[in-house]
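Bug report

Summary: structure tokens for TetR family transcriptional regulator differ between web form and batch submission.
Environment: batch mode, default settings.
Steps: 1) Submit the sequence below via batch. 2) Compare with the web form result.

Sequence submitted:
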Amino acid sequence: MSNHKIEIRRSNVEKILLGAEKVFAEKGFAGTAMADIAAEVELPRSNLHYYFSTKTELYNAVLLGLLEVWKQDALCFETYDDPRLVLSSYIRAKMTHSRTRPYGSKVWADEIIHGAPTLGLTLDASLYDWAKMKEAKIRQWVADKRILPVEPSSVLFMIWASTQHYADFDHQVNIINEHQPLSDIQFERAIHSVTSIILRGIGLEP
């Protein structure tokens, strides 16, 4: 396959996955038809089936792609050692994706709320070891007295809940914000507020 064809394939797959995020978020898995996604991405339905033969295959690809995004957001745990820098970077990455990929966050939340019926054991294998590595780093910070004694999993849960709220419950956020989406300045303030609250809760200054 030529480089040009490879690039076309990559571009089409990315376009389909992003479009599918939106449709799945708005209609749910059961309420979505492949024709809905084809219309969203403005591709013939036959083209869609060329890349993804079934709706389940496409849905699974969307979820696994999102899992990889979440993992990329957490690379700071491996790159840095300073807890302030690691957690500030992680929160900003998560908040940014809540703003740029809100549909993806909603699809992920719906899958998890229903007990991961599609991902199943794939989620267990992918999420468990990944999360335990992050917990181990937080536990080491506690042991080194670099942060206050905290339950590592609770820190992760709090970050996930706080940051993904801006995507999963954006309608609620907009209502409180005079029925308007947060401006760039307001969202930056939100990142600062979430970061400050979490860091101060473990004994660090932002």
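Above is the batch result. After comparison, the two runs are identical; trailing whitespace caused the diff. Residues 3-31 form the longest helix (29 residues). The CA atoms of residues 111 and 124 lie 13 Å apart.
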